[in-house]
């Protein structure tokens, strides 16, 4: 009887811990899979993107910023797959933005995309 009660309490504690961990991750605004990439992504962004996009702005086309609303408006499928939409934009460029697929590795592009996504979610 004691073992069954102990197991039931342990299961409750584990479930509560899981629920609290999920809630905490949702409150931080950073997807757990992206947390590691954002640090390197910030450095890569500063080295390659900040000349035109300092602080999430756009010095060439003022309304096409890296703010969430602008990304949603101007990047195809952003509302469905935001990271993939950002990756596509970085890889292929558009208009005045150059393509970076031959300048950055896929891992670097992924890290920049994670950084941009995280910053857009927190309003830069």
Report on the structure:
- The model has no long low-confidence stretch (mean pLDDT 86).
- With 124 residues, the protein is mainly α.
- Helices cover 64% and strands 0% of the residues.
- The longest helix is centred in the first third of the chain and has 27 residues, at 2-28.
Oligomerization status of the protein chains: single chain
- Percentage of residues in helical conformation: 55-70%
Number of helices: 6
Q: How is the main sheet built?
A: none
Q: How many β-strand runs?
A: 0
Proportion of residues in β-strands: under 5%
Order of helices and strands: HHHHHH
Poorly predicted regions: none
Features of this protein?
124 residues; mainly alpha; Cytochrome Bc1 Complex, Chain D, domain 2; 6 helices; 0% strand; iron ion binding; heme binding
Give a brief description.
Helix 2 (35-48) crosses helix 6 (106-121) and helix 5 crosses helix 6 (106-121).
Lay out the secondary structure:
Blueprint: H1 2-28, H2 35-48, H3 50-53, H4 68-74, H5 82-92, H6 106-121
Helix pairs in contact: 2-6, 5-6
């Amino acid at each position: 009887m004691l073992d069954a009660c102990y197991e039931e309490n342990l299961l409750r504690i584990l479930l509560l811990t899981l629920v609290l961990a999920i809630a905490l991750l949702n409150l931080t605004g950073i997807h757990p899979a992206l947390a590691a990439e954002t640090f390197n992504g910030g450095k890569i962004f500063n080295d390659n993107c900040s000349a035109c996009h300092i602080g999430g702005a756009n010095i060439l086309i003022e309304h096409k910023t890296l703010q969430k609303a602008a990304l949603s408006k101007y990047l195809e499928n952003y509302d469905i797959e935001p990271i993939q939409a950002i990756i596509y934009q970085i890889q292929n460029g558009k208009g005045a933005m150059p393509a970076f697929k031959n300048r950055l590795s896929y891992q670097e592009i992924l890290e920049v995309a994670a950084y941009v996504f995280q910053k857009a979610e927190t309003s830069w």
